[in-house]
Each structure stands twice: as C-alpha cells, then as structure tokens.
Write a structure and sequence with these properties.
Layout: E1 62-70, E2 73-83, E3 89-95, E4 100-103, E5 107-111, E6 114-119, E7 124-130, E8 136-143, E9 146-155, E10 173-182, E11 187-196, E12 202-208, H1 225-235, E13 239-243, H2 260-274, E14 280-290, H3 293-301, E15 310-313, H4 320-334, H5 339-358, H6 362-379, H7 387-401, H8 404-411, H9 414-418, E16 425-430, H10 438-452, E17 457-462, H11 489-502
Parallel strand pairs: 12-13, 12-14, 14-15, 15-16, 16-17
Antiparallel strand pairs: 1-2, 1-9, 2-3, 3-4, 5-6, 6-7, 7-8, 8-9, 10-11, 11-13
Helix pairs in contact: 2-3, 4-5, 5-6, 6-7
Length: 504
C-alpha cells in the first residue's frame, strides 16, 4: 500500500494517537502501508493479584467494550478478562475497527473498586472505576502524554471479526511452501506456491505487495488480500506465488535498508524461481502488483522481455511526492478538515520534501527538518501533547523521512519504467481510492504507455471501490477494517478474465 501522510491528512498529527502496524513507530509520513489511529499492538498479558477488597478480579471476568473519541473518529476498544487453569487473571484487548483481536497485556490490577492496566512497552495506561452493579468501568485511556475519556460496558460475548471471503481449507489445489534466493542481495526469500490440480503446465503469476513490511498474504486490518487473490486465481487455473517481504516472516534480509529498486530485485528473483518449476508454463508468467507493487512490476518488466503480463492494482503513475501531496489533501478533506488546514499542511509537506531533495546528507537534512518542524509546531501548538512526547514524535518523523526507502520513493518516476513496458498491461483503480488517486495516476500510466508504443493495455476506474478494492462509502482509510469485504468480486473477475484473454 502506498503510505499515507495521516488519517486526517495533516503532517503534524497533533490531535491523534498513531501506531504503525508494521514498525510500531509514530510517524506522519510512513513508509509502510499507512498510519492508523491508536495502537494495533495494544496491550497486555500478566496479571497482578488484587488486594483483598469487597470486589475481586473474578467479579471483573468477561468482555468489556468502549469507544475512544478522537477528533471526529470513534475507535472501539474491547477488554477481555479471563482466568486460566491456575486461577490467574489474564487480559487481552481487541481493536475491532482495526481488525485486531487477542492482543496481550503487561499488567492488570484491581485496587478497591478501580481497575488499572498498564502498557509499559508502549506507554499506554487505562484506569477506571467500577460502578456498583459491576457492569460499567468509567475511566481514561492515557497515551503519549494525552488522556481520553473511556467508559467500558460489560458485554455478553466476545467480539468477532467477520471476513466472509477468507479462504478456508481443504483447498482443491496444491499448496507448497517454497524458498528462493535473490542472488544480487544474497538473501533467501520464503513464500507459498499454489498450483492447480489439473495436469499440464499452468500459467503463473507473482503477487507483489504494497509499501511497508508485508507478509505473503499482504495481511492488514484482519484482511488477507493476497491469500484471497491466490485462492481465486488458482481455482481459475493459475499457479500463484506469494512471498514474505525481505526481513518479514520467513524471508531473510534487512527491510529497513531496502528501497523500491531493491524490492524489484526480489520480485525478479520470484520470476526466475517460477521458471524452474515443472508445473509452470515458463512463457506465461506475469505480475500482479498492489499499490507500490504496481510500481515494482513495471520496473522489472522494463528490462525483462519475458514478463507475459502485468496487472497494476492501484499502482502509481506519478512520483511519490505528487501522490503524497494529493493523498494528504484528499484524506484531510474526507476527514472534515477545512481549507486553511489543508493548505497549511500542504505547505509544510512541500517544504519538507524540498529539504530532502536538496540535502542528500542525512545529518544535514535532519538538522534542517528539525528546525522546520519546530517552527511549524511553534505556530501550531499542540496543547494535548507534552514537550518530551512531541520531541520523540518529531525524531521518529525525521528518521522515517530520511530513510532510504522514503528518499527513493519520493522522487522515483514510474513513467520512466512504464514507457519501456511492452507486454499486455491492465491498470485498475477504485474511484474512491484516496491513497493513489485514480484520475491523475491512471492518466499518467496511459500517457507513459502511449509514449512507449504499448498498445496492448486496458485502463479501468472501478466505481465505488477504495484503495484495497473493497466496496466502500467514502474511501477513507478508517473504513478499511470496518468493511467485511476483502476484495470486490467484480475486481477479481475482471483481473482473471483479462489475464486469461491475454494468455490465449
């Protein structure tokens, strides 16, 4: 997924709690799939025995649910208190709006009629007082120097997250765990190859994930898009290879030091691996890339004439800088920000990107960025955040901005590579995609293909779909986890039909 400035579109994120699913690092411009409200690695696991009081921890056993109100957004938080066979209390948290369940805890205590839960590793705390009926806990959630009212009500049952499209075994095809090497980087990558049961050579496709540390299922927010895509296409007769990003899951390598160009070498290694498989028709191997993966596929195909086809799912046609600026404004507007705020955030973002482009030395760039951000904070004071917390946030921002991946992504121009792609290409975007805006990017993709002389392409904007190709209402990233659909059936059918037609 192309990174997003933030849920509100503002660079400084002064009014929100953020935690990146991939890096656990607070950042406004994230090099991963996107920043989210509140932590997805929420809390806890050990319990402390309650003091001898009229109320005991067993009285608190069960499921408790409340909602954090952050600006115009509500985020459900669920606490589950259970007891094991040794009669010790345990607590876990669910964040259903982020698609996350059963997160462990670090400390649970009951003192008189009050419950205290600490997240020492993340710096969060919950403290609340039980009412006389033991059905409500009125308290506060504290994190990053800020405090939010939170009342938890007792619920009758555990929270479940419905993902009706997620494939479940047994599967009517072969599932093979594989490993292959990127000889250029000297690393071993691991993935899953699914092949049809039918006899004969199968056309094949490599799935390339979006930005951020992605596992082979491109798992996020309770969804597993690549698991679904692999299952769907294998049932249609394709062999499908999906793999963990370098440094993720069972794959080796250092993710933090890699750029889009390095990831292209990983994808090329996957292509080379498929050419060694007896089940695969080596003349019919293509790529499906989602978001940043839609940039990586053309990078490979620009120098390899043995790529049979490319499907770009919300792939970029513009530079990273252009996308981030568009994305920030669209998400901010979707979140209710006024024009003054949008313009202010646009200016600070442009100033930051200018510093990065003019200063290749990270130390010099960091010094100038720190001054720039401090000046912005002075003009836009955040009364809810203490100076120490703000300093940590800004340090994390600067580390992200000066990372190899972000520097590369900021200026990398997809049109340079797209203009050299001559294989059949399908580019699709959802009309509600706020992260890779469809109009501007699809137009840029087509322009590059025409310039390069490729006439074998299809460009489609799919009505009502978001960046993940879910049927959506607004397209805002805060909808992703709440939507039960993982990928629109119409989008799946479109890709499959186009691929088969171009492999005849």
């Amino acid at each position: 997924m192309i990174p997003q400035i933030s849920e509100s579109g503002s660079f400084p994120e002064t009014g929100q709690i953020h935690h990146n699913l991939k890096t656990s690092m607070k950042a406004n411009i994230s090099n991963i799939r996107f920043a989210l409200l509140v932590t997805t690695t929420l809390l806890f696991g050990l319990a402390i025995q309650a003091q001898e009081t009229k109320i005991v921890l067993k009285d608190c056993a069960g499921t408790w649910s409340g909602a954090l109100k952050i600006q115009k957004t509500q985020l459900r938080l669920v606490m589950n208190i259970t007891f094991n066979e040794a009669d010790s209390a345990m607590a876990t948290f669910d964040s259903p709006d982020q698609g996350v369940l059963d997160l462990p805890t670090s400390r649970l205590a009951l003192v008189d009629d009050s419950i205290y839960v600490d997240a020492d590793g993340f710096g969060g705390k919950f403290a609340g007082k039980l009412d006389s009926t033991l059905n409500s806990i009125a308290g506060s959630w504290m994190q990053g120097g800020m405090s939010f009212p939170l009342t938890m009500e007792r619920q009758g049952k555990r929270v479940t997250i419905n993902r009706p499209q997620e494939p479940k075994p047994p599967f009517p095809y072969h599932v093979i765990q594989v490993k292959f090497r990127n000889e250029t980087a000297g690393i071993e990558l691991a993935g899953t190859l699914t092949t049809p049961e039918a006899q004969g050579l199968a056309p094949a496709v490599v799935l390339i994930s979006g930005s951020g540390m992605q596992n082979r299922d491109e798992e996020l927010l309770g969804h597993k898009p690549f698991l679904l895509l692999a299952d769907f296409l294998t049932r249609k007769g394709f062999a499908v290879l999906r793999y963990d990003d370098r440094g993720v899951g069972a794959s080796k390598g250092d993710f933090s030091a890699a750029t889009s160009l390095d990831f292209a070498k990983d994808a090329e290694s996957a292509l080379n691996f498929l050419k060694t498989r007896d089940e695969v028709d080596t003349a019919k191997i293509g790529f499906i890339g989602h978001s940043e993966g839609g940039l990586i596929a053309p990078i490979v195909a620009s120098t390899r004439k043995d790529v049979a086809f490319i499907v770009m799912m919300a792939g970029p046609g513009l530079t990273g800088e252009q996308i981030l600026l568009l994305q920030a404004a669209l998400i901010a507007k979707s979140g209710g920000a006024d024009e003054k705020t949008i313009k202010s955030n646009d200016k600070i973002s442009r100033d930051i990107y200018s510093v990065l482009k003019k200063n290749s030395d990270n130390e010099k760039a960091a010094q100038k960025l720190r001054i720039l951000i401090a000046d912005y904070d002075k003009k836009n004071p955040d009364k809810k955040s203490d100076p120490a917390t703000k300093e940590k946030e800004n340090t994390a921002k600067i580390e992200t901005l000066t990372s190899p991946w972000f520097r590369c992504f900021l200026t990398l121009d997809p049109q340079v590579y797209l203009s050299k792609v001559l294989c059949p290409l399908l580019a699709i975007n959802g009309s509600l995609d706020l992260q890779v805006p469809p109009k501007e990017n699809l137009e840029a993709i087509e322009k590059a293909l025409i310039f390069g002389g490729n006439s074998s392409y299809v460009i489609e904007e799919l009505p009502g779909l978001n960046h993940l190709f879910q049927t959506a209402t607004t397209g805002n990233p805060n909808e992703y986890a709440k939507i039960e659909e993982t990928i629109s059936p119409g989008a799946l059918e479109l890709m499959s039909a186009w691929m088969k037609n171009n492999l005849k």
